[in-house]
Structures are given as structure tokens and as C-alpha cells.
């Protein structure tokens, strides 16, 4: 197999399940690969805010002159988006030798697609002469493949209900799974303002160096700027992060706490922080593309993130109508997700997605129709996100806005066309 696509197809065939939590197989293969990092490793877990946190860590590290590597998942359009080295998305050809290394080391072990690809990307990162490695947990924490790597600092972002069939029925159970990335004696940054007790209990039980928002670090701000204070250091007059949304100061505060905790090994200047926060980019997170009509892209796919999206939409100001393109996985808490955003939507375009896990457009329509007290607005079903977006663009007035949200497949299905202005009327 010479091409990345061939390797990805191979990975899809190795294990009967898409998700099979557990570290034994991954750790055994990683050990045979000799997988180890010679730089500080920051591991990030949480329900929402992981991607934003990783992007801010990377942006600040790069501005400080450090060679940063980042692993995030899933991708929006191309698999190689999951890994960036020195701020650049890796090339498919760079990954192929590391898929070969995993194949040689697995010795017949049945790795899932996520486990195999994670090991390949970690292999590339470990061989890339990094100054800092930033790793985003895929699902949970304790049993996620990323947790096979020992972190020097762990960050836990906001905790909410998602993936309950794997992680447990409530925030306490889910928090305990996320806390599995913490290590004895190592910084444990918790940027959730109301963390589950299970995280605090576990951190105390293992002797982690726990940093709590409101106790060990905090932030304040007005409409123009914000300030951060931690253990013995403060920054004032900071510009707001370039990432939009009400929760980004929580994420940014955790990022600054992590750099403060690691400052002996990974010092960053105040100017690097200012520049990094000003320049950070993350496609698909309340991403607003100007034009007519305005286009908003967001991978909000659980009730907590959809509530944040609704608040962010509310803060955008007046639009005559909001059109929503929506596709999601069938195992999501769809009723509460829809209920949180229904008051803001004037027309719905439900879409099928190219994965067996997805809810069909028809089932999404039926879920929406079953909501008590919803407004009776127009709704339609479509075979893919691009078709749904074209339908929205054909209906929307230039002064309206179109929201594309839900699964990564939904937003990625739009972004894969390149600049998503393909939908705008003035481009035909």
C-alpha cells in the first residue's frame, strides 16, 4: 500500500467495531513501535472546547518560536487535517511510512480505525523533532488511544452529556472517564467552572497538581479586553481570542494556566500570548463567512454545544430569517439539541450523511416535528449537505443568514467544496 487512502481503507477493515475502548492493544503496539516523545506533551480531554483549546495552545506555542505538533480528530474534509506540524497540515505521503510501522508492530492485533490511525500520527509526531506535542482525546479519556502517551500536563475542558453509552449516564461518570488523562505529580488544568466532583476526587487520590478555575486561575473582562491571573502571574489588556463564541475565554484561561504550569520547560512571552490569541484559527467552530447571505458553520453536536451556538447566534444581531442545514449522528440526544435552537430557526433543511451512524434526514424531520410547542416553519429533507445548502441558498434573501451545523460530516460536506460561497445566489 503506497497511498494514504489505501491505508485508511485497510484500517476500516481490521476491527468489527468502530469504537472499542481499552488501552491494552494500543499500549502493546506502541511499545513495539518504541513510541516516545522527547518534548512536553499536553493532552486535552472534555466534552466541548477541546478543539479550540488545542488550537490556542498551538497558536501561542508557534508565536513563542516553539515547533508545535497537534493531533486532533475528527477531520472536516481530509484525513491529514488531523495532524499539524509547525502550523502546517501534514502531507499524505508523510504519514504512509508511519502506517507501515504500525502494521509491522501490531502483529495481528485487531486495532480499530481510530487506534491504528492514532498510532500512525503519534509515530509521525514523535519523529518530527517537536518542542511540544498537543494531543486531543478522541472519546472519554481513561481508555482512549491517546492516553497511551504519558502527558506532562493535562487539560480538561467543559464536561457535559455526550457519548453516554460509552462514558456513563451523568456528568460524574463522564468526568471520571475524562479524569483518566491526569497523572500523579503533573499539572491537571480544569477549565470547566463547575467541574464534576469525580474529577477533583480522582486528582486528589492520585496526587495530581490540580489547577481549578476560580481557585488557581481566573479571568475578567469588559467589552474591549480581558485579563487573566494565575499562580504568581497575571496578564492584563488582552484582546479577545480570534475564535468567536461566549465560551472561548474559559478555553483561553485553561490554555494560559497550562503554559504557566509548564513555564520552566516551555516559556512563552506575553507578546506570544497576545499574538497567538489574535491569530488562532479553527474551521467549523462558530465560523462566520461574510457575504450575502451570511454563512455560519458550527460542529455543535450535543445539547451543551448547541446551547452555546444558540447564544452566539443571538448575539450576532438581527437577520430577517435564519435558515438551518442540519445533519447529525443517530446516537445523539437529538430532541434536546433541536429544542435549544428551534426558536431561532425560520426554515429547516435536514440532510442525510455518508455514514451508517448518521440519523436519516427523514428521521431528523420527524424528531423536529415531534417537539412540543415548536413553531410551524417550512422544512425539507436532502440527500447530502451540499444539496441542502444549495436549497437554502436558493430560498434565502441576501440579508438572511444560513447556519450549517451538527456533525463534522455536515460542516465538512459543505467545506469540501472549497470556499463555501458556492451556495450564495450571486455565485449562481
Tell me what you see in this structure.
An eight-stranded mixed beta sheet has the order 4-3-2-5-1-6-7-8, sandwiched between helices. A six-stranded mixed beta sheet has the order 12-13-17-14-15-16. It starts with a helix and ends in a 13-residue tail after the last helix. Mean pLDDT is 92; it is low at 422-428. Strand 12 (287-289) and strand 13 form a beta hairpin. By secondary structure, the protein is of the alpha/beta class. It has 15 helices and 17 strands. The longest helix is centred in the first third of the chain and has 15 residues, at 92-106. The protein has helices at residues 4-12, 24-33, 50-63, 92-106, 113-126, 164-167, 171-178, 197-206, 248-261, 270-279, 303-314, 334-341, 361-369, 385-395, 408-415, and strands at residues 41-45, 68-71, 83-85, 88-89, 132-136, 153-156, 187-190, 209-212, 218-221, 226-229, 234-238, 287-289, 294-298, 322-327, 347-351, 379-382, 401-406. It has two domains: 4-279, 3-Layer(aba) Sandwich (UDP-N-acetylmuramoyl-L-alanine:D-glutamate ligase), CATH 3.40.1190; 287-427, Mur ligase, C-terminal domain (Protein-Tyrosine Phosphatase, Chain A), CATH 3.90.190.20. It is globular, with a radius of gyration of 21 Å.
